[in-house]
Amino acid sequence: MTGLAVRRHLDVLDGLVAVAGLDVVDVGCGHGALVRELTERGARATGVECGAAALAGARAAAPAVAERYLFGYGQDLPLADGSVDLVVFFNSLHHVPVADQPRALAE
Question: How far apart are CA 5 and CA 41, in angstroms?
């Protein structure tokens, strides 16, 4: 396939919203690369991850600014209702059981 533009997750997000000054949650953050990039753009970023190894990797990485990482699931986020401005599911919503996806999106 030629002629297709390749866009990174952050490129897509940048085209939709300016994250500087926002509380942003990356659900299924893996090793935290996107979370660190979000903080570098001025967001107060939190990564939520249910995989113990990935969460340990995110927490072990050198912090970019002041990001944080929490254990949790997309359908039951470990955050108070209405406490964040933006939630992203990049490459993670499909890991939520189909029956729980509406609840994850409502979160």
Answer: 23
